[in-house]
Amino acid sequence: MNPSHDPVRDELFDIFESSFDEILVTDAKGVVIRVNATCRKNYEQIAGGLVGKHVKDLEKMGIFYPSATLKVIESLQPIELFQVSNTGRYFHVRTKPVFHSDGSLKSVISYSRDLTELMQLRNKIEEMEDELATYKKELKEPLEFEGLISKSEQMDKIMLLVRKIARVNSTVLLLGETGVGKSKIVRLIHQLSNRRDQPLNEINCAALPEQLIESELFGYEGGTFTGAFREGKKGLIELSNHGTLFLDEVGELPLAAQGKLLHVLQEKQIRPVGGRSPISLDIRIIAATNKDLKNMVGRGSFRRDLYYRLNVVPIHVPPLRERKEDIVPLTYHFLDYFNQLYESNVRFSPKVLQAFLGFEWKGNIRELENMVERLVVTGDEVVTLNDLPTDMLEQEITEAGTTLPEVIEEVERKMIVQAYNKDKSTYKIAKMLGISQSSAVRKVRKYIEEERD
Ligand SMILES: Nc1ncnc2c1ncn2[C@@H]1O[C@H](COP(=O)(O)OP(=O)(O)OP(=O)(O)O)[C@@H](O)[C@H]1O
Hints:
By secondary structure, the chain is of the alpha/beta class. The protein has helices at 7-18, 37-47, 55-60, 68-75, 116-140, 153-166, 182-192, 210-218, 236-239, 255-267, 293-299, 304-310, 327-341, 350-358, 364-378, 390-400, 404-422, 426-433, 437-452, and strands spanning 22-27, 32-35, 79-84, 90-99, 105-114, 143-145, 148-150, 172-175, 200-204, 219-220, 233-234, 244-248, 269-270, 279-280, 284-289, 313-316, 347-348, 382-383. Helix 13 (327-341) crosses helix 15, helix 17 crosses helix 18 and helix 17 packs across helix 19. Adenosine-5'-triphosphate is lined by residues 147-150, 176, 178-184, 248, 288, 290, 330, 333, 365-366, 369. Adenosine-5'-triphosphate binds next to strand 7, helix 7, helix 13 and helix 15. Keywords: Aromatic hydrocarbons catabolism, ATP-binding, Coiled coil, Nucleotide-binding. GO terms for molecular function: ATP binding; DNA binding. Residues 111-138 form a coiled coil.
């Protein structure tokens, strides 16, 4: 179009031409009468010229589909739709009818905005959200059964065994270090068994003095003690009839009590308190220990016959460091729990989770649980490596350091973190560590700020 010597017309034309949106105008029949530069740029070559063509033909050629103009001509209403071009681009199209003063249709104007990049980004985000959901599912949806998390192969096997033995009455012996979850498994076995509506009674053989263990287990007659206990008391064995009796730390059971227990297990009956006639026992025994019972048998501190009576179905629960796949799911499990309990929203940086994988966890799951609680209560919103207790990081150094430079770097990081926790000033840190301030600035950036990011 040549300059018209009408400045307003020229200006409107410039606006029309320079629009980033495609503008396409047709007459009342749908024949293109005007297109702007963006439209020409996108289609002219493919369509071999747009002006003079009917939108139906352009639709057939796949230049755009569906044609919004045709719909407007039909309905005489403005419409809005999404279109795909034959080059695979997405458009958001808004099309309006323009009327003569007598109400008849004069022309149809379409404005199309290219949303291809936006759609690609949206698809990418959706893909990433799907991926994230899958990872989260993997991490957060390990088998959780009655609050018991298991992701590792070892725990899978144990869970399988637990389901099997829950159905029968065999005596079970749980073996494993402290805090590996033996008691939790006992509760699960009871819960899954048909004794679940009967009592599960627990006695910790390490927590009570010898005489009390016996009276707890076997009860005592009235008159044995004075005062409040004068009446006599039923023992846990009698109270557990038809249910489950859990003997925790069974390795600590005194020899005399071991003998009495064996007798009860062999006879399958107990003489109830009060001298009444013996009652037959229908009781499931589950015992647990972190001691090497076999070794104790060899040394004579545990009765061999009782050991065999208890060791019908042994379950070895491995320490956490030998089933690292459980560490992250357990961490998330406890993190969710304590965040809810303390109404907080603490998260762990990936490096913290990484470090957790390297720790020894001598106290196993109990130690991990306590650590997560401590970090939720004391930490900021995002817990970083610097929030972990120094003794844990020391452990990490020995674990992480396979080469000298790695060990040196870990030591350096630890010293910087410690100094930084004492004083945030790089001047003071430089003085504390006997390095230049510029070196302190560099190292703080490396070990504190980058880790925080
Ligand atoms: N698989 C698990 N999923 C979730 N929590 C667990 C799991 N295993 C253990 N825990 C939790 O860890 C803590 C320690 O577990 P538990 O008391 O069962 O260990 P234990 O082996 O019986 O220890 P100890 O030998 O010292 O008695 C408990 O708070 C328990 O709820």
